[in-house]
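Sync notes, pocket subgroup
Present: LS, DG
LS reminded everyone that the earlier model was apo-only. Rerun requested with adenosine-5'-diphosphate included. Inputs:
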Amino acid sequence: MKSLGDISIQFIKGVGPARVKLFENLGVRTVEDLFYLFPHRYEDRRKLTPVSELKIGEWQTTVGEVMAKGGRRAFFHKKHLFEITIADDKGRVRCVWFNQPYLENYINVGDQVVLYGRVELFNDRIQIVSPEYEIITDGDDGLNTARIVPVYPLTKGITQKYLRKIMNTALAQYGSLIVDVVPQDILKRQGFSSLSSSLSQLHFPDDEKSQLAANERVSFDEFFLFQVSVILRRLSIARKKGFAHFIPPELLSRFEKAFPFVLTSAQKKAIAEITRDLREETPMLRLLQGDVGSGKTVVSFFGCLAAVSNGHQAAMMAPTEILAEQHFATFTKYFSDGPLGDVRSVLLTGTLKKKEKDNILAKIKAGDVDVIIGTHALLEEDVQFKDLSFVAIDEQHKFGVKQRALLSSKGKNPDVLVMTATPIPRTLCLTLYGDLDVSVIDEKPQGRGEVKTYHVVDEQADGVYQRVAEWLKKGTQAYIVYPIIEESQQADLKAAVAMFERFKKEDFKDFRVGLIHGKMKRSEMLLTMEKFKKHEIDILVTTTVLEVGIDVANANVMVIEHAERFGLAQLHQLRGRIGRSEKSAVCVLLGDPQTQEGEMRLKAVIKTTDGFKIAEKDLEIRGPGQYFGRHQHGLNELRVVNPLTQLKVLETARQEAVSFVKSDPLLKESAHHWVRETIRRRYPEYLERVLAG
Ligand code: ADP
Ligand code: MG
């Protein structure tokens, strides 16, 4: 039978070749992809707010007729401004958009428009700035008005109306092919309706209740399948034989002597948990969770040294070259000629010269080096270890499960420690990382200054630069961070480079300004970073390449430009680069949020520096429909709406998955055929290992 995952959307009526291309931008290639393109919110158009009842300060949806329109260049802003006035029988409201001149040709007097945005008071009149808009004048097929309407993430060339129409057509055309993967007895027990009716309610709900039920049902599927694969994997690992390291108590005390500081009790606890695992023959698979700056690296070094002291090798993989370099520098600082003797370590990255690289590879293979620190380059086929017994993966959410498995497969079931600074609420963690044991570092090293965070609107950026200059005069160093979002990379990069030029000549002409971004030569980037570390540069203009790991204690000021464009977790990560010494630190979020979520994100980072609280807030703010998984956790995407609102479903799915695997550990029963097939397709890296034994 043909699966929806094999049917291209070109077969849906109304989707031509040009649109197929555009849909790719949304990650949609197949009918199945389309069904799982969830609305990021819904609008209840059964009861829109009349214009006369709009409330200042609220995010609202209203509808009216366009009475007047006009575009001009607002001289004080140097920006293009387009405005319309809409009215219903009782009132009128002004709407403005900046720098979107094409709207002049798009919205016309006489159009009926639905608008969503924040209502403000400006010169005593109410207005909405940059609302989401939709013209509903002509031809409604019952999908766009007088009902709960899905609002989708869009891409250029695909409108809400078109997407709704295609979704509706596809559901009619292919809805009957949606199979229930989860066995019927489970569905019955949980009182769930079919997946096909749930998906259809998820897109076009009859009412709020059925929309919520549909969410639960669809999430259950995702959680259940993922859980089953996670449990299978856990079982397969438990059956394997790895290394039983010998770890005498004095190893820890000698290890501790290597550092100029004392380990926090949270670090000690994590090390104790790891030690227990290392001693067992069963391979360790442990997640080390700890907020930025909590000192995870040191903990992973302990694992490396345990391997070495048993005569084996250890590998540590980091997602960026800068970070690998930094870890290597830290490691050699403490352990070449430390209290544990001279541990032989090497750095392996993609930019090594061939000769140098061959030389290093030969040493790794021959066992002439003990600790190998590197980037993705470690995964390459020609990297062969003599005897790898411990693997650490830093910032593991930047890697996939596959890469994790690939590195481990270079040893004979080595002990694996993965590290992340993305804190996840406990319940979720259990589900997402059911195949991992978890250690948490919930305490920061003593003597860290406070980080104060402020939001400043774009207009006052110059004032911020002046303040930064004052701080620099006092000897601190600073970062100025620019966003680079994939699609618009070129333009963004230009902005960062242009500002760098300006800073050098104007705002920071008395200081040493550096620039790093992902498109420059690695060697140049590393050199600049090195200079910044040595305080030969005062202020570093950078893109998000800075995001992970970087550790420069004297940098205590950070300005994040266009802060509204960053995700919450990303803002937290970035801010984690400062406040690494006893001095207090300042983080300025520059930007003008254009959406409610954007505004909430900034508020959340200002309010707390606690990574766990931020993670929870992050989940809360994310609208339904944002895939949860790939980017945050390095997992295949879980196609669910906001998991925080689904904790009950999550728990139910876990329990069902446990008894499911217990009853049929090899997924042999015919009623379980679809579970097996689906896992094989979606989580192959989990299943293969199980069935291969
Ligand atoms: P993260 O958990 O973000 O990876 P790091 O491992 O990079 O944190 O550690 C951040 C900084 O704190 C490093 O400079 C490290 O040397 C330092 N550090 C680690 N543990 C301690 C400790 N117990 N006391 C003081 N400083 C520490
Ligand atoms: Mg780190």
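DG: The CA atoms of residues 151 and 299 lie 46 Å apart.
LS: The radius of gyration is 28 Å.
Action: DG to write up.
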